[in-house]
Amino acid sequence: MNVSLWLWLATIGGLIAIILADLFLVDHRPHAVTAREAIRWVLFYVALAVAFGIGLWLFAGGVAAGEFFAGYITEYSLSVDNLFVFVLIMAAFRVPAEYQHRVLLVGIVIALVMRGAFIAIGSAAIHAFSWVFYLFAAVLIVTAVNVARQGTDHDEEFSENALLRLMRRVVPVTPEFHGSRSFVRVAGRRMVTPMLVVMVAIGSTDLLFALDSIPAIFGLTQEPFLVFTANAFALMGLRQLYFLLGGLLSKLVYLSYGLAVILGFIGVKLVLEALHENNLPFINDGRPVPVPTVGILLSLSVIVGVLAITTIASLVKVHRDAAAARDAARDTEIAASADRRVPGSARGVVPARRAPGPGRPDPSRA
Asked: What angle, rounded to 10 degrees, do the helices at 255-276 and 62-80 form?
């Protein structure tokens, strides 16, 4: 795929325009984002991604469009797991609800810039060293195993990374928020607010997730333009998904297993492609190994299928667990009601029959 400079500039300019419009439309009047508002924005960004993919199909062909959609869906699904950490960050910094949208927007822009640099480095490495595919495959497979072991467990506390700790040592930080401002002057001294710190936290934390998501998308396409745009559309829609999902995150109990399968599948795909184009002298004497490769249509089908199965299985399990909890609560209430109707049964003691006193007839002989 031959991508001209003007297409790169037009794409980046369009993304900047969307970010500015989003910032103006939502943040000119800070408020807590409602579920209905989040749904509209999620649909808007998904529609943008679909329109972009259709444009690729019309002007660059079905292969490029398929690689974009496979990369976009993979990045979006992997980014959903980031939301667990975003929730922890917002809670740790006690970010007011009306400022959370701006925090996520700026934080994700920071993440996108850093991912752009990461993508450029990764693309250059792939074209210069063929063994990078083996390295990416190893990263994905190891990550898949770790994600599968994690299962439904997620960290319940956020710990600041090295960048945030360095930032606190270098620049003075106010103890409280000052509206949506990132810099303030206190007693003649210029200081940063927790608003800036939490934005950096979102951006830098996302870069850690990129260590596995970027190799994953390079396993689907080696075109830097498609890698970057898939990341951009996934990240732009991610912050609105944060407000939409909310408590629904806890219902995706099998999400980690689905992501592990996807990462493992792409890792194996990378190994096969690396062997198919092998030139390492210690593998098959530097000649390509005749192994089958995985096409983009099969990759897209596996990714969508795994996500669908994961989502349906998660919702079924949550529904069954809720029904079982209701049944257990009802049985407990019925048992408690029965105990209240039988005197003394709460202690497991049946009341003794009173012996007939003097002059009283024995009812058992009546």
From this structure: 140
